[in-house]
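Retro notes, item 3 of 5
We never archived the inputs for the zinc ion complex last cycle. Fixing that now. Sequence and ligand:
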Amino acid sequence: MAASKRKIIIDDTTLRDGEQSAGVVFSLEEKLKIAQELDALGIPELETGIPSMGEAERESIRALASLKLDARLLVWSRMHESDLKACSDLGIDMVDLSIPVSDQQITYKLGKDRRHVISSIMRLVPMALDMGLEVCVGAEDASRADQTFLLKLADACQKAGAKRFRFADTLGIMEPFGMLEQMRCLRTSVDIDLEMHAHDDLGLATANSLAAALGGATHINTTVNGLGERAGNAPLEEVVVGLEQLYGFSVDVSLKQITKVSRCVERASGRRLSRQKSLVGKDVFTHEAGIHVDGMLKDKRNYQGVDPGLVGRQHRFVVGKHSGRKSLIEAYGRLGIILEPEQATWLIEKVRDKVARTKRSPGKAELKALYHELCHDKSPVIRRILHEHAL
Ligand SMILES: [Zn+2]
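Structure as it came back at the time:
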């Protein structure tokens, strides 16, 4: 894919859609901390909450606004007059006015028709503008909307004065090739900003977000760790690295401290992160297999797909069932213990036994204990090995 220097703006919704995960509630203190940490990464936009939920939510949004972050602040609102009124006097920049756009939801959720959707946009967008807010229109369930109607809607948003149109794959049912086409159609139809809001029900939120960017989206919604309803949203860390590394987009976000932010969101949400979660999981830069470790010790590029330095991390080598002698010698070398090849052969068996019992890599103290056992255990087996190898 040809490199593109076009800029993509990240609109992170950890504080709104992330918190919408079942059972997740952030305290005000946690919200403020997460917002400050995201701002420190250089995230340009933060979606902060849903004002119509009540005064406590509105107070937390005001508190976020009082931080005077560099990030621009958005709120989410249904396209209802009363909900919109709750967005006044919060110190925020923009409102995402959301309305269902698929016939399924228009008919069976709203009990209305397509004309109602268009007329709501024409009425509510100017109202929000009069309140001094910029407007993004959120097209809920856009994935199932009639294509021609969706284009008509986007056009109505532009005519009504909206600055942005958000394609919400509310159910997480898009796939990247279709997404690319959808976004291309929108891009050629309207001149306003286009945003992608992806969910991960089929494991495609990142792929769909990248496809949307390729198709002409200017903004991408993300959440830290992919936190969000059901299977979650497009993970911030994956989207940023994907946009930059795979397609050469300019994102202007530094992920050096993303691990810290990731752990902060993990704690605040109570959602444990998989050790194998791409880019931020504990084990994703950890290497055990003998062939890989040997290859990396010769030249790390042999097995490095993503530079861990991008996310402020380093490669980590551990020993385990798949370690070879070289990696074991290297691991003990880091502990200041120089192993003879025969000692390594004996220790490999011991390490494998231990891993089979504990189902994890041995730590430094355990490796030292095994070495100590090798040197001092006078069992017949050890004596035979020591004798055979004249240790
Ligand atoms: Zn969502």
